[in-house]
Amino acid sequence: MWGGDTLKKFMKIIQMSYMGQTNDGYLYVLPRILVKLLYLLPMLVLWRVLAKQGANLPWTLSQLLSYTYVQTLFADLLVVQTEASSWNYEGKLVSYFTRPFGVLRQLVAQTMGSWIPMLLFFALPMYLLSPLIGIDVIPRTFWFFPSLCLCVMLGFAIDFIFVCVTIHLRGMAWLGYVIRMSIAALFSGSVIPFSMMPVFLIPFLQIQPFGSLAGAPLSFLVGQAEPFRVIGLQVFWNMVLWPIAIGWFRKSQETMVSYGG
Amino acid sequence: MVKQSIRRYFELMKLYAQMDLGWLLRDTLFAVLALSADVVGTVSSISGLFLLSWRLGGIGEWQREQVLFMLGFATLVSGLFQLLFTGNNTGHFSRRIGRGQVEHMWIQPLSFPMQLLTEGFLPFTASGNVISGTLIVVFATTLLSIDVTFVWILQFVGLLLTSLVTVVAISYLVSSLAFYSPVQAEEISTYVLDSLRHLRNFPLNAMPKSLQVTLLSVIPAGMIAWYPTTILLNTSQTSWRMSVPLIYSVVLSMLALTAIRKGLRYYVQTGIHRYLVHGHRR
User: Fold this and answer.
1) Residue B41 belongs to what domain range?
2) Closest in A28, A57, A182 to B40, CB measured
3) For A41, which of B5, B37, B195, B220 is 20 to 30 Å away at the CA?
4) Segment A3-24 mean pLDDT
């Protein structure tokens, strides 16, 4: 199923995607970097201010800074978003059906390729700079790595489910996008760690499927997660949502209307 | 001439309102979904900080009720923007430029400002955030026991409109880049407004002075909700501060107008070739 030829095609799509992001020059990555920095700076200052004012924080300042810093660096991986929804609307997705390679595989490869410019020109330099600004980005436990893999896998499954939602909304990509990003921002723990939320909400936030995205690996990063429970939940949601994503996409593609424009 | 323009403006607003109502009645399920998506989007963007301030009892010098008031004000600004500038991407002008749709505007028997001030009006399907923002502000006002006088309401409406003008001006200012780089800058207004939507939610009184100054000048996120809130909640008393958002929004509007005019001059010379022969975008 994943022979040398398949892998070669997969890698080629990754390369094409990366090249597509940088064909017009590397300068076009700059606005995205600026947006990331605009997001990061006030959050880092906020944690410092709260710590300084003596707020009763459940985590140490160092843990909060690490959480927010790494979340910003690897945001694309922590809440995966493929271009499929908007491409359905724009008509680009149709061309994927004409290629001799699975549509979902192409989407995965294309998305992974699109991560490369930001990883190279934003995440890597910022990662190397982190000791200079006093932020610890070394994971406190090895569990961070399997958790990150499961998070990325689950992210793709959730994205494909939203692609199906978009198809059934008759191509209204922005509607699916708004709902999906809103849910992800609040329920994935990508903006504020779950531990900082009101206590009565925490058990619910941890157990729902989006809670196994960003919040899970980042909690391992700062050493605040129980491996058995968090990894178990991530495996569970992957096992539940992947069959739904594949099955629903197979059915939904028959009703897909993609006319571009 | 002016009287005729004003009459035409209201006629067109009525027309767009009727079309919006027609859409709502024709496809109610979808319209309700669209309405809910806007509310979910904005409420989720303010929930993180509100839940944090709830947990901690406040942020910086501000109590959680004051934070809630500011977030409600921010939601109302978003709501008004959506109500008046969502339709036909009039608030995201870079999309229209990048997609080559400005050409459609030349053949209309209406001036550019008249088209842009009326086409975006969606009083029914885009009213979700005006309703939710109003409810949040009313709730926070009750919690804070604010003495709501006629003058205070005038101040509130004035500051709300000033914030709206600031948001629209920023959107048009950055959109002008799409004249020169239509593919790369097509979504620039979305990126910038999304970033502002995140940044405007921070109570800046908790932040260091250098960050306050930056977020009130170069990146005017603080001018959208935080600064007006400090005036409305009387946390900064001096009277001259009332005029700062007004002056800022006027200056920003002039800059945006100049940039768009300059961009349009470039556009009529070069045009935009975004579409392939079979209709898909490049």
Assistant:
1) 2-270
2) A182
3) B37
4) 84
- Mutation test of the interface with chain B: which of A24, A38, A177, choosing the one with the most B Cβ atoms within 10 A? A38
The answer to the question of residue B278 being in a domain is no
Pick from A10-14, A48-52, A83-87, B90-94: least confident: A83-87
Residues of B in contact with A52 (CB under 8 A): none
Task: Render pLDDT for A178-207 as a digit per residue (tens, 0 to 9).
Answer: 788 888 878 998 888 999 888 889 999 999
Cross-chain residue pair B219–A172, CB shorter than 8 Å: no
Q: What is the ipTM of this complex?
A: 0.80
* Residues of the domain holding A45: 4-260
Question: Is there a contact between B41 and A178 if contact means CB atoms under 8 Å apart?
Answer: yes
Number of domains in chain B: 1
Residue B277 lies in a domain: no
- Residue B151 domain-assigned (yes or no): yes
Q: How many CB atoms lie under 10 A from the CB of residue B230?
A: 20
A108-167 residues touching B, CB cutoff 8 A:
none
The pTM for the full model equals 0.85
Residue B220 lies in a domain: yes
